[in-house]
Amino acid sequence: MREPTNDVVELRGIDKSFGAVRALQQVDLTVAAGECLGLVGHNGAGKSTLMHVLAGTLAPDRGAIAIRGADETASWAVSSAQDRGVRCIFQELSLCPNLTVAENARVAHAGIKGWGWRRRASRLIVDKLDEIFPGHGVKGDDVVGDLSIGQRQMVEIARAFTQTDEERLELIILDEPTSSLDAVSARQLLDFVRTFVDAGKSCVLISHLLGEILGYSDRVAVMRDGQVVANSPAAEMSRDGLVAAMGNVAEAQQGAAVRQSSEHVRADTPVAVEARPPTQQDDQAVTAHRGEIIGLAGLAGHGQTDLLLQVFQAGKRARGKTKHTRVMQSCALVAGDRQSDGIFPRWSILKNISIRSLGQLRRGPLIRTAKERELAESWRTRMGIRTPSVDNGILSLSGGNQQKALFARAFGSDAEIVLMDDPMRGVDFGTKLEVYDLIRSEAGNGRTFIWYTTEMEELENCDYVYVFRNNRVVAGLSHSELTEEKVIHSSFEGEG
Amino acid sequence: MDQLRQKLGEVPWVWSFLGAAVMWVIAVYVADGKGAGDMLSAAMSFSVYFVIVGIGQMFVITLGPGNIDLSIPANMALSGALAMKVMGGSDAMILVGLLAALGSGVAVGTFNYGLIRILRIPPIIATLSASFLIQSVAISYGRGLRIKPPEGLGEFMSVQLGGVPAIAVLTVGLAAIMAVVLGRTPYGRGLIAIGQNTRAAWLAGINVEVTRYLAYTLCAVFAGLTGALLAAFSGGASLNMGEEYLLSSIAVVVIGGTSIAGGRSNVPGIVGAALFLYLMVTMLNAMGAGPGMRSLMTGLIIVGVITLAGGETDT
Amino acid sequence: MLERLLSPRFLRAALPAIALAAVLLPIFAIQPRTMSYFGLDLLLNLAIPIAFATLAQMFILTVNDLDLGIGAYVSLVACIGATLLNSAPLLGVLALLGCVAAYTAMGVLIQLRNLPAIVVTLGMSFVWSGVAIMLLPQPGGEAPAWLQGIMSFKPPGVPFPIVAAVVMGLVVHFGLLRSATGTILRGTGGNARAVQRAGWSLLRTKATMYTLAGLFGLLAGLSLVGITTSADANIALRYTLLSIAGVILGGGEFVGGRVSPIGAVLGAITLTLAVSFLSFVRIPSEWQVGSQGAMLILVLAARAIITRREGTASWKTA
Amino acid sequence: EDLQDTSDMRIALSNNYAGNSWRQAMLKSWEENADEAVSAGVVQEAPSFTTAENQATEQAQQLQNLILQGYDAIVIDAASPTALNGTVRQACEQGIVVVSFDAVVTEPCAYRIEVDFKGMGERQVEYLADRLEGSANLLEIRGLSGTSVDENIHAGIAAGVEAVPRFEIVGSVHGDWTQSVAQKEVAGILPTLPEVDAVVTQGGDGYGAAQAFKSAGRDLPIIIMGNRHDELTWWKQQKDANQYETMSVSISPGSSTFAFWVAQQILAGREVPKQMTLPMLTVNQDNLEKRLEQTQEGSVTNKTYSKQEVIDFIQQAKSN
Ligand SMILES: Nc1ncnc2c1ncn2[C@@H]1O[C@H](COP(=O)(O)OP(=O)(O)OP(=O)(O)O)[C@@H](O)[C@H]1O
Ligand SMILES: Nc1ncnc2c1ncn2[C@@H]1O[C@H](COP(=O)(O)OP(=O)(O)OP(=O)(O)O)[C@@H](O)[C@H]1O
Ligand SMILES: [Mg+2]
Ligand SMILES: [Mg+2]
Fold this sequence. Notes:
The complex is a heterotetramer. By secondary structure, chain C is mostly helical. Chain C has 16 helices and no strands.
């Protein structure tokens, strides 16, 4: 990896506060041409806020911004950032769901207009998609709202990398781009980032997957509580070093994450959930016994989320039954697409957590507010949600912390079955380990988990894993049989 | 200043009360200090109906964009006629008559919801279409004839305790209960959650359809109740007595600080807004403004108040 | 091919046209005279102003707002058209421009102060009505001859209302759905923050949409007064609800910037016809009002079948 | 005796509103009369059509459909005196006889059976001038703003007050011809008003005004009544209790039958004046009981017209 030569951007002494929260304190950061800077830090460390400042969507309280050595602080805004070739893929979806893929490209590129602009826009974005994500399956005239979250993420990424003739492109900020992608697409993206950077452009990559950061960036900066606490070439960094710098308590458990086999559970305990995808042709079904952790694997968008919804819907029925599904206990769901499936944007953190538990918080017809607060506070501590007060709006939380609130909602409820829809999107490394622990101990107490995940290492936590392909279960692997090769093999070749 | 704004932002209903107070002061000033108290009691006795209807409409509006009940006027006409006919002028039948009005409300609400749920008709059009049907039922049932309310009920509607109408006190009680239902019961929470994000609400375990059904029914029941009360108060039901409630019911809700985008509701604000609208008309009447001027001023005042009160704190 | 024709997506796009056919064909059957040039002209000419008003409402709905004042605004324009525009053309034109400017200002105010549009437009509806009453305390006035002339224009072959509907539907379709700028305007309804982050000014989009709404409201008022030849202050109050219903019937949605101009025009025509359909059949007088409701329900019930099918289809891709 | 046989002719009633007792009575009178006429073979059919909403645009649409259906005559109670003109002209051009009544249209090709609304306003003030001595304060309850009926009655009242300088209108509200609205508006303005000696109305608002005065604890002024059963009943009660005296002026809903026969006579070839003025229906202290007896409970006072009455009326109008 080569040494940075000249700086594309330079941030000096950036401060940003939201009310009492000091999101950024005296942050210095530079990105050089031809460099991929990895940015890591716990949830709420200030990474996204810093990137908003860099992209011009948030004005810092103090500090200076320079582009190629020229001070731009005074005039820094979205448009000047765009003029200077700085682009950002935000953590939250920035596509217009009512527009087509091509039209969304047009929104981002003011230059696409005039006769035949649709064709040009469509070609531009589809070419880029082909380049980054071969086999993406997205068409230029698909309406974004109809795409899966993974596909939307691909479109958003491709859109940021497209370049019309008159545009400059120097630096791309990727804020947790892989959180909604499956392993294959994530790898495609990261490989593309390397070619992009090797061509002399720059990139800031934010991720909670330390492997991605260490494997693909030239330099790594670590943020903690609004400050950059470490900044050195990736080659000099180790996984342990990163974890230590991020200040995670859970670091000790690292590596010990492998779960003890618990196959005995299968035999002894009653069935909690039985569900067959409606298109399944053989009699293979997803079965979960009480106290088990069941993993759903396979490429994104192959029917795992649908199965969870199918179970959830049956669970809402009084008798817990629909045509293909049997659910014996009550269900809660941890959404992965938190914007559309999870949070209530106008509510406080407290109300977002308690909504699933109102029934049990009741005395007579009324909710006991003291109990409600108790519930929220206790889960804030258990999940480590970073906020001065649970009465703050949910949107004041960083992405990962919002996700933690959704965990708190499900775990704090009386549901016996917890369905998880790729729930670790945006959750930081340390917290993940804590949540794994929590899930295991809850399972030990008899809770059942059905867990769709796109990350291989998470499957290690499961007692039994079902691999999906084309809306069907194509393989069932017990913990002892589970290997990455088997999962990947079934994901691709399970059946036509 | 910012802090004050924020404080006020937490209690958006103060604006409507503030507005009402300003209107009242101006009206009293214009009338050379005459009738300040009488003006308030008149405002209270007439605001009652707007408050009750408004609360129902608020439950529907809270469900989120596109949810508005336009069948309120027809519903009021029908239930008013029904109540008066059932009561047949006899004090003994008052309770039965009121129950009949509530029952017709339940029927209307169920019908509205059925159109929305089973036929998937967007609520605005569903309730608009329903209102035509209901109006026909009201016409064919009542034949446009006006039936007098029982003496006892008519008198009760204008009982005053030291200038405060008894019915206003009851209405404030009802509003308080509904505020608690909205803020402190699982049902209310579920309703507000649906208004913010229906899918997320469903996934959080809320019985979406039951909640929506209850909201539409509650709205219709409140409109039905208002129909009966208004008929009693104004000496009989008439086909057109609900007409002005079409827009007013929406106006009191939104001026009262409920977010039209759903997910934020405000019961006290409705009371303030109803008083505000009534006193504003009183003020303009007292000033002797002509019809055009009065309408113009009404509009400017509403826009002015909402601009002062500031917008939604979030988007 | 048949599969494509029966696909839910296609059916949903075709729904406004199906609904229109469902109303129009029975009318043709009951009263064959309506199928003539003269018949169609009579049957449809009052749909022109409604279609304009519906498009105006659609612009507002595109940016997730709702206009409760469009009916009053159209009435005001009609009043100006029947008074000032005739008696003092220059003043009349200025007044009309002022109306459009007021709509622009309303959009700016709503955006700058982040106000709920529904309250502002409701408040403004009183303003429009007030000015209209001051201008025309009692019904009357006379539309300028040129305006009456335009509205009674008889093009060869195809009745004027059909020509007008096609033209306005296509113009707005290309302007809003196909043009590069229209994309930004609709995107604002879909995800305002995303559009803003891409460097576009939300103030400008809001102002543009409200200006367009003001402009189409203006066309609605003028075409209305061109047909009726004179005006009154309440002449178009019901356009408010009718226009909302028209947009929705045409496949638009309340939030999310999903609208269809052609659908809206068809929706407006369908509603106009649904209302008049009933004077072709004999119904006891007390049930006449109700049967209009029943008509609307029937027309919209088609949605149920289609959306239900679509519901099962989208289940898979959710 | 008709010059032409009308037994195969069709007359339609175009109505724009059904939401109050007056319109209901009007429709009922029409239907009863039409049924008789049809069974007597005078006309082939005479259906009525009502629009769902009280709007000129919708009524214009309805008229156009009636034209398309080829009716021989159309009788109109119009939503607007002018906004239907374009359509009415189209009807005339098709050779259809157009007769408007109650709320008439100004289009010259149509026949107008008018009510002297301005006179109705003047008449009220004249009556009060007789009743009240010295200066007096008047409260005016107006109807729906922006309509011609409201403007005309108001103009009559204004002219009347002009002529009687000792009268002053101290307050004016719009009751929208809806009793509950009138009651609300009057109750709102009352606290700001000095002593009120009389209330001038547009009919139908009297009872609401009386309620408002009662609940404000004010002395009852002379309230000009309309034609509703409850107004007359209230008046009767007050009369019996304390010799309360007032008057009532109104338009008879049976004017629809008058319009029907006019249309029939025109079709039958009789020459009819383009414009006729129907007398007002008045109730005074003496005929109150009789009128009340004839009025169905909850409805309005009515007078329907027979064919012969209408023929006589036409003759008289022609000779004037
Ligand atoms: N709009 C806001 N209002 C209030 N506080 C905010 C707002 N946006 C961010 N914050 C706070 O600023 C801090 C930094 O948030 P930021 O989103 O930058 O974290 P992050 O490092 O990106 O976290 P994550 O990994 O979870 O995405 C957090 O404490 C967050 O709660
Ligand atoms: N998969 C889904 N994702 C999101 N929202 C859904 C889904 N399925 C249903 N809904 C929403 O929830 C509503 C159904 O609400 P409700 O909570 O009553 O469902 P349910 O209890 O599962 O159904 P039911 O009681 O009718 O069997 C639907 O109208 C729809 O809006
Ligand atoms: Mg972040
Ligand atoms: Mg249910």
